[in-house]
Design goal:
Strands 1, 2, 3, 4, 5, 6 and 7 form a seven-stranded parallel beta sheet that branches. This protein has one domain: Isochorismatase-like (Rossmann fold, 3-Layer(aba) Sandwich), CATH 3.40.50. Helices cover 46% and strands 18% of the residues. The relative contact order is 0.19. The protein contains nine helices and seven strands. Helix 6 packs parallel to helix 7. It is an alpha/beta fold and 188 residues long.
């Protein structure tokens, strides 16, 4: 068997986890973070749909914070939604059951807030033995310094921090396929 570097993503072993991108909380995010979320999370959702990558969406106390924002909800064709009050989604049995059901070992993790729920979920995933890939341009925090601290903490914890485009091209692996032709339009 050919050796694969552990940072190399494989569409057949990946799951996309969207953390707490909800109405009331989204409105409080730094403007550049909001722009990044609205631009890049839909790209990853389209890639997940095209490449048959399972999607799990967490919502932190949706009765108080609201549902996933409408521009993303429209792009999610199928996903398992998990309600939570824990900051780390990995503390929720329904979340870990959804991961187990997916039978994948690599997690692409996006969402908000970078330094709280995304970071704590990443720690839990790493603790459970998952490879965690985090596109820093698909994360958000209310304050840029907290966003920066969150990205730094993710790196220190052992997550692979990259970008939406880097992840997209790793999942595609090569140009010329019908999937490549459809998905490249989202970034060019």
């Amino acid at each position: 068997m050919k050796y694969r570097h552990p940072m190399f993503l494989d569409k057949q072993d990946a799951v996309l986890v969207v953390v707490d991108i909800q109405e009331k909380l989204f409105k409080t995010m730094a403007a550049t973070c909001q722009e990044n979320i609205l631009k890049n999370v839909p790209i990853l959702l389209a890639a997940a749909d095209e490449l048959e990558i399972p999607v799990i969406v967490s919502e932190q106390y949706p009765r108080g914070i609201g549902p996933t924002i409408a521009p993303l909800k429209k792009k999610i064709t199928k996903a398992e939604y998990i309600e939570k009050v824990d900051f780390a989604a990995t503390e929720v049995n329904d979340f870990t059951k959804a991961l187990a059901k997916a039978k994948r070992r690599q997690v692409i993790l996006v969402g908000m807030e970078t330094h709280i729920c995304v970071y704590q979920t990443a720690l839990g995933l790493l603790e459970l033995g998952f490879d965690v890939h985090v596109p820093e341009d698909a994360l958000a925090s209310r304050i840029i310094e907290n966003y920066d601290a969150g990205v730094s903490l993710l790196l220190q914890a052992g997550a692979v921090v990259s970008s939406t485009e880097a992840i997209l091209f790793q999942l595609l692996k090569r140009s010329g396929s019908e999937s490549f032709k459809r998905l490249q339009k989202l970034i060019i």
